[in-house]
């Protein structure tokens, strides 16, 4: 029997840990590279995996932990799940450790920044778009969707044989599909990621949301800004599992607030923390804000499109994402958006 490929997942955060939990039972030569508290917790107790929205007993998954690539033979596949702000440092260190070896590198990060970073270090790079929600409650303990889904692709649709191998590895424990429209997939995910900063600013899941109708209005209009931008920039809609289609988002702008609030209270336990919230609520000032909202604002400036909600969210995040973070109410965010719209309207009239 042909030996299974050696697989290393780098990063024991929500995405890396969830992938390890789904894949470890199916791949004897799968390793999670972790250090510090995460490594100790998983070595001693296994990975504790809980399905969000349920109160059932957690699954304890045995996962092989390494703290250095020197502990194993050179891997065939390396899955990078670190945040973009750590990616260059991680990729540089990994390149040094690999020497002349050229494994398949799979970058699973939000946005498109990884497409500029990873080719500087590696010759065979595949990009993954994670279409599920997961968050780390504490080292070695994660909450996640019942099922994972990842879309993989390359900018020029090369590395077809390598993508088939990666898809077969991932499909053992979750759903993986190959796309020939990576740019559309990554940008459609970026539309949804725009809400990460908004939900973080408002302190979602950290304080009671009193005016949820306002928050959902902001969210839907923020999504619609992103969709309009992508259409103007020439991107097409790409189906992403678990993410509403564009036509639903457009309709969602006019859903009555009372209906939205009722739906929220029925499903609140199923809505987890996003990756930016996990960073900010733990006291980190470095986030993916520039890779997500900042990137979309730069694209908007390039094509001459106004994004008053995203610009307001970005400005508020720059001010509030500090060590002593204090949430901003949804009412205050809405008022700031209206002020931003008025300023933009005045500038347009003057021009």
What are the main properties of this structure?
351 residues; alpha/beta; 12 strands; four-stranded mixed sheet; Rossmann fold; 13 helices; globular; N-(1-d-carboxylethyl)-l-norvaline Dehydrogenase, domain 2; eight-stranded mixed sheet; 15% strand; 2 domains
Can you walk me through this structure?
- With 351 residues, the chain is an alpha/beta fold.
- It folds into 2 domains: 7-179, 3-Layer(aba) Sandwich (Rossmann fold); 184-350, N-(1-d-carboxylethyl)-l-norvaline Dehydrogenase, domain 2 (Orthogonal Bundle).
- It contains 13 helices and 12 strands.
- The chain has helices at 14-23, 36-45, 84-98, 114-117, 160-170, 182-201, 212-233, 246-252, 257-267, 275-281, 289-303, 308-320, 330-350, and strands spanning 7-10, 30-33, 47-51, 59-61, 64-66, 77-80, 104-107, 125-130, 134-138, 141-144, 149-153, 175-178.
- The strands form 2 sheets. An 8-stranded mixed sheet has the order 5-2-1-6-7-8-11-12. Strands 4-3-10-9 form a 4-stranded mixed sheet.
- Helix 7 (212-233) packs across helix 8 and helix 12 (308-320) crosses helix 13 (330-350).
- The termini are far apart.
- The relative contact order is 0.12.
- The model is unreliable at 265-269 (pLDDT under 50).
């Amino acid at each position: 029997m042909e030996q299974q490929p050696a697989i290393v997942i780098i990063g024991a955060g929500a995405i890396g840990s969830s992938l390890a939990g789904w894949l470890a039972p199916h791949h004897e030569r799968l390793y999670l590279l972790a250090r510090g508290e995460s490594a100790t917790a998983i070595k001693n107790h296994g990975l504790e995996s809980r399905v969000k929205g349920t109160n059932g007993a957690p699954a304890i998954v045995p996962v092989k932990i390494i703290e250095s690539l020197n502990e194993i033979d050179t891997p065939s596949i390396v899955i990078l799940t670190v945040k973009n702000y750590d990616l260059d440092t991680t990729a540089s260190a990994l390149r040094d450790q690999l020497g002349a070896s050229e494994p398949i590198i799979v970058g699973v990060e939000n946005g498109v920044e990884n497409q500029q970073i990873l080719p500087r270090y590696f010759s065979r790079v595949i990009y993954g778009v994670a279409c599920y929600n997961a968050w780390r409650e504490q080292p070695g303990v994660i909450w996640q969707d019942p099922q994972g889904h990842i879309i993989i692709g390359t900018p020029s649709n090369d590395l077809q044989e390598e993508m088939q191998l990666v898809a077969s590895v991932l499909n053992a424990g979750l759903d993986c599909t190959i796309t020939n429209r990576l740019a559309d997939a990554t940008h459609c995910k970026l539309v949804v990621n725009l809400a990460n900063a908004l939900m973080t600013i408002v302190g979602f899941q950290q304080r009671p949301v009193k005016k949820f109708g306002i928050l959902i209005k902001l969210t839907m209009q923020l999504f619609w800004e992103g969709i309009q931008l992508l259409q103007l920039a020439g991107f097409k809609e790409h189906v992403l599992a678990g993410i509403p289609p564009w036509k639903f988002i457009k309709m969602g702008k006019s859903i009555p607030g009372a209906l939205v609030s009722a739906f929220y209270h029925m499903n609140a336990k199923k809505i987890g923390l996003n990756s930016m919230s996990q960073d900010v609520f733990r006291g980190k000032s470095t986030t993916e804000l520039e890779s997500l909202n900042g990137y979309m604002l730069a694209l908007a400036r390039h094509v001459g499109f106004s994004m008053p909600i995203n610009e307001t969210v970005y400005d508020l995040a720059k001010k509030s994402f500090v060590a002593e973070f204090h949430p901003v109410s949804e009412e205050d965010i809405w008022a700031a958006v209206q002020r931003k719209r008025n300023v933009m309207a005045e500038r347009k009239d003057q021009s």
